[in-house]
Description:
Blueprint: H1 16-41, H2 55-62, E1 71-73, H3 79-84, H4 89-96, H5 131-144, E2 151-156, H6 163-174, E3 179-185, E4 188-189, E5 192-193, E6 214-218, H7 222-237, E7 243-248, H8 267-276, H9 279-289, H10 295-318
Parallel strand pairs: 1-2, 2-3, 3-7, 6-7
Antiparallel strand pairs: 4-5
The protein binds thiamine diphosphate.
Thiamine diphosphate (TPP) binds near residues 159, 162 and 184.
Amino acid sequence: MSTQPQTLAQAPELPPADLLKMHYLMLLARRLDERMWLLNRQGKIAFVISCQGHEGAQVGTAWALRPGIDWVLPYYRDLALVLALKMTPREIMLGAFARAEDPSSGGRQMPSHYGSPRLKIVSGSSPVATKIPHAAGVALACKLRHEDAVTAVYFGEGSTSQGDFHEGLNFAAVQRLPVVFVCENNEWAISTPLSKEMAIERVAQRGSAYGIPGETVNGSDVVKVYQAMKQAVARARQGEGPTLLEVLTVRLTSHSSDDNQFSYRPKEELQTEQEHHEPLAAFARYLRQAGVLDTPKEQELEARVAAEVDDATAYAERAAPPAPESLLDHVYADAEPQQ
Length: 339
Ligand SMILES: Cc1ncc(C[n+]2csc(CCOP(=O)(O)OP(=O)(O)O)c2C)c(N)n1
């Protein structure tokens, strides 16, 4: 990452209980993610695409949203985000094991295409950035219905070079829609580095082309991320239109379980990022300094998270796969028109 880490900000509006819950969710996401890699290498689940290094961006922004009221269109890295929005570890593992009970797609879509009708989490298509104009559409519907729901859509910086990004931002800006565009910038699009993705320094600069505010925050400064998102959400809710929020993150794993990042990325770069920009450790340090976290509390949280990860894994492993007859559901239109 090219920016220096910022000093962690103080936030009087976040009581210690909230800070601890945020830390717990980041830890839960990290440990679930790590377990999924083990399950993949054991041949038990087909595919993993990681949130590791993005947890601060995701939990910090989620904290400014109202789960089940605001609409959220996540992308595949958003495990910590959907946990913060109240998806459960069991639901996550049911998707990873492609089980019938998986709320995202009944075990039929690739894992990590998170969706939950109960929580207004909208599952996306695999072509990156397509969810950005979808989010503008959701926000337009909310505006026409005079609902005060805000829509938040998440994507990587590589996705901002797709046409869908530009069309979605332009439409949302012209219509002053209640939407927040959250870019998790880890400076890689699989093996393509940032310098080959765009000729500008910051994704946030793209906002000015559409007449909307663009802001960049450090994703390992969870409190700052929350504050920036809170401001963007308030702007949307007050009818002042969209914001482009760029959160600087690090990608601590290969792009996915089918990739080897060391075929294109220097090992030293990853080491530097782990030492200086790793959000889970940075937030734990902040909480220790603030007197909110200590070793016994940390051990207690680790034990609780380990039990939840074990439970979710065992539950999903035992759960039934989708029925063969459901193979073509939602793939083709029904032969008989529905009344
Ligand atoms: C339209 C389209 N082109 C290419 C791909 C293949 N692809 C999947 S993820 C990805 C990288 C996206 O990078 P970015 O948006 O920066 O997100 P990151 O994975 O780095 O978080 C690509 C190129 C795709 N899914 N859709």
